Amino acid sequence: AACNPPSTNSLANDLNYPTVSRCIHIVLDYTLDDFMNYAMTCGTMHPAVVAFHKKTSGRFLQSKWSIYPGSAYEVPEPMANEPFPCPRSWTLASNVINALGGAKVNNVVDYSLLKPLIEGAVGIQAADQFATTYAYMHRLPDIEKIFDGTLDAKKAKLEDNIAVQFLTMMSCINYCIGSVNDAVQKNITAAVASDKAPAYKLLAGIHYCVRFMGEASSPELATMTLQSITKAMRESKMSPQFVTNLLNGVDKAKGLTREDIVKYSRTTSTNSLDVQASVG
């Protein structure tokens, strides 16, 4: 059985002692890694939300309920009938940003409109902290140019700021997963007849995004980018040949080779998926 404890004001009551003595009780908590893995898998979580929690080490991911003694969460237990942060309400906040036109990371939502809506989802304290990270939005590189391979990573050095780096990584992941889903809907085949073929543009774009993250930030972020995208490709209805073509490379002249991908797929990362097994 699963339930919320009474301290969460969720209309829950304590179990009586005879029932308590007949059960094993395990308290489940969300961790930052749990939230990050979910965000990179779904491909719809707004990059600003993910970057904020990475920047703050998950301190505002949820409220500091009494069932989590000694936790690093900074927002205290809420009073009755007031919004509070939790993975569900942060997902709602992400949906708000996307609905207001911020789905493309370079489109910055008006602060005066955004702030009260985010407060309504996660509460005042968490929303105030989030607003600072959202201010980094205008510093990000053009994701479409990264995907097209027309933005030089060496010239577009990301600032030495983890929020900017993770915003860029999540933007690349979301853009690539969106392109994968679009290819599935259009029934695009895995045939790479020329650099004009839709399959070529998709696979080359993924290469460019992975390489950009490796050259502009770190191999670890490039690895996370690659793993999230290949996982999404496998879980979609896309032909397995797409993943095979991606890992084998699509254009030696432009450096989009197997070696280019293997370099990042073998980098140690906290998100241990099965990319290593795929490339051998």
Q: Could you describe the largest sheet, including whether it forms a barrel? A: 2 strands, parallel
Relative helix content: 40-55%
Beta percentage is: under 5%
**Using only CA atoms, what is the Rg?**
21 Å
Total number of helices = 13
Estimate the global geometry from the Cα principal axes. Answer: globular
In short:
This protein is mainly alpha-helical and 280 residues long. The protein contains 13 helices and four strands.
SSE topology sketch:
Blueprint (H helix, E strand, L loop, with lengths): L16 H4 L11 H11 L4 H9 L7 E2 L10 E2 L10 H16 L8 H12 L1 H11 L8 H6 L13 H24 L12 H19 L2 H17 L4 H9 E3 L4 E2 H8 L9 H5 L1
Notable characteristics:
single chain; 280 residues; two-stranded parallel ribbon; two-stranded antiparallel sheet; globular
Molecular structure report:
This protein is mainly alpha-helical and 280 residues long. 54% of the residues lie in helices and 3% in strands. Strands 1-2 form a two-stranded parallel sheet. α9 packs antiparallel against α10. It is globular. The two termini are 42 Å apart. 39% of the residues are buried. The C terminus is likely disordered.
